[in-house]
């Protein structure tokens, strides 16, 4: 099981949303084919075929818990776990 697979599993379990490293989450979204644009402290992600925009901000070295939940919802809705 690779690094991205483990992270997707951790996100889908939903037991540690406040303990996901921001840089790891950014790397996962890039690996899943999302395009990133940075505007100030906002990291914006878009992907063809996905209507939702993902907006991430750092909270120290971690991603914000509610934003991890939003990523989980997108992964589940579009069945992106198989791409990790």
Strand and helix map with partners:
Elements: H1 3-13, H2 22-31, E1 35-39, E2 42-47, E3 50-56, E4 58-59, E5 62-63, H3 65-77
Antiparallel strand pairs: 1-2, 2-3, 4-5
How many independent structural domains? 1
Regions with pLDDT < 50 over 5+ consecutive residues? none
Shape: globular
How far apart, in Å, are the first and last alpha carbons?
10 Å
How confident overall, as mean pLDDT? 96
**Biggest sheet descriptor:** 3 strands, antiparallel
What Rg, in angstroms, do the CA atoms define? 12 Å
- Helical segment count: 3
Q: Provide the structure class.
A: alpha+beta
Q: What would you say this structure looks like, in words?
A:
The chain is globular, with a radius of gyration of 12 Å. β1 and β2 form a beta hairpin. It is an alpha+beta fold. Strands 1-2-3 form a three-stranded antiparallel sheet. A two-stranded antiparallel sheet has the order 4-5. It contains three helices and five strands. 40% of the residues lie in helices and 26% in strands. It has one domain.
């Amino acid at each position: 099981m690779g690094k991205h697979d483990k992270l997707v599993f951790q996100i889908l379990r939903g037991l540690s949303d406040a303990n996901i490293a921001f840089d790891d989450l950014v790397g996962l979204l890039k690996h899943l084919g999302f395009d990133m644009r940075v505007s100030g402290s906002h990291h914006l992600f878009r992907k063809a075929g996905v209507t939702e925009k993902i907006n991430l901000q750092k909270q120290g070295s971690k991603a914000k818990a509610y934003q991890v939940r939003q990523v989980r919802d997108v992964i589940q809705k579009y069945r992106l776990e198989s791409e990790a």
